[in-house]
Design brief:
single chain; 197 residues; alpha/beta; Rossmann fold
């Protein structure tokens, strides 16, 4: 993953990013008992701040130092958020330590060992919840879709869940937040699963 590219994106287009939490996060998480949460690809931190305001202790990670600086500046000093720069492979994350692992529109790079995805799944505690929301690639042109499938894991990662996981939600939904300017994303794939013992 390319941190300078994401830094540049936040410098030039950061003002277009909503300061509101993802509506899917709010809908899927509001009834969960707060605990320790991992927000992967946190950006400006709207999701992390919402979770902290609702009793979660949050570790929020992002590749972009620019995004994290802005996120921290928008956060109350006593908020329960720890900001960390890096990705799933560069940050040392404790094994099965998070009651909630949330990833919204996270581009997981394709690799032979699916290392990033394995780290994402490994972070979920026994009894914890995984929430993954991604663009539905059906919204893209055939050429763009093929390029995305060649370089990234497809949005539907349910096939990678081993026995012991319980899928609680797995569906295609209309986007609740407006699509980024210049894109045609109209639907999301939402996966919420609980890790069993």
């Amino acid at each position: 993953m390319d941190a300078p590219r994401w830094d540049q994106m936040y410098r030039t287009h950061g003002d277009l990013i909503s300061e509101n939490p993802n509506a899917t996060l709010v809908a899927e998480v509001r009834d969960l008992r707060p605990g320790h949460a991992l927000d992967v690809g946190c950006g400006h931190g709207a999701d992390a701040r919402w979770m902290a305001e609702h009793g979660w202790d949050v570790t929020a990670i992002d590749l972009s130092g620019v995004a994290l600086t802005r996120a921290a500046a928008r956060t109350e000093a006593d908020a329960r958020v720890t900001w960390r720069q890096g990705d799933l492979l560069s940050i040392d994350l404790p094994h099965q330590a998070f009651d909630l692992v949330s990833a919204h529109y996270l581009p997981l790079p394709r690799s032979e060992d699916h290392a990033s995805l394995r780290r994402l799944l490994d972070a979920v505690a026994v009894g914890g919840t995984l929430l993954v929301v991604n663009h539905d690639l059906a919204d893209l042109s055939p050429e763009t879709r093929r390029a995305a499938e060649d370089h990234y894991l497809t949005p539907d990662i349910i096939a990678f869940l081993r026995p012991g996981w319980t899928v609680e939600v797995h569906e295609r939904r209309p986007r609740t937040n407006p699509a980024p300017a210049g894109t045609k994303h109209t639907h999301d794939i939402v996966l919420r699963a609980r890790r069993g013992r």
